[in-house]
Amino acid sequence: MAKRRKIYEGKAKILYEGPEPGTLIQYFKDDATAFNNEKRAVLDGKGVLNNRISEFVMMQLNAIGLPTHFLKRLNMREQLIREVEIIPLEVICRNVAAGSISKRLGIEEGTQLPRSIIEFCYKKDELGDPLVSEEHITAFNWATNQEIDDIIAMTLRINDFLTGLFAGVSIKLVDFKVEYGRLYEGDMVRTVLADEISPDSCRLWDMATGEKLDKDRFRRDLGGVTDAYAEVARRLGIIKEKSGAEILSFSGK
Ligand code: TMP
Ligand code: ASP
Fold it and tell me: 123 in ligand 1 pocket by Cβ < 6 Å?
């Protein structure tokens, strides 16, 4: 294949120039990082699984009229997406306390929250993506009030939809992180879901056993990271077996 122009390389994905103006190719790497790059590993097959899981989720969201950047999956590691201007926020939605909210507010992990809570972090690796309020976001022009309203409404819709989707396969959606972009269409600009939704960016607990099926397996050295991601894919009907052979057979570059 002809050498493509790399637009951006992040910790888990690479963006290449797309085949047509206004499109990009999103490539899923096997690299895993945690705690802002302090901890690193290459997990064979993770990129393939995240590509498939994120494709599945984005297609389901497109189908309920939630606008996303996703166009189509191209191969095992790549998907065609619309080019958007990323809004520099990590938008977290929580249903059950875990991770940083448990530490920050002293709430035991696993505690059901009184209602779904949305948090915003400013996307800035050098600062470790600090938690910010809507006041910061509008004062520093990271997003407008209208965009914040759209982001909150879309994130709550995603939460309701994904909570049901995962509950259907006996998985509890504890929390997740999403990112949004500005899609320019002529004179119009629309806020659309961007980035990925995968076990890298969600907390997913088995409803029966409480077993973690997400990136906390890596963060907390629990082992079996890609096996857990494959289990999520298998339950959603994306792959048939969770055998190592199948995961390796589609982990080709
Ligand atoms: P936290 O509890 O560490 O703040 O994480 C909340 C959710 O956001 C969890 O599902 C993991 C996800 N997340 C990311 O996708 N990227 C990140 O950089 C961080 C810190 C969390
Ligand atoms: N993705 C972030 C990092 O690389 C943090 C995390 O997911 O825990 O450091």
Answer: no
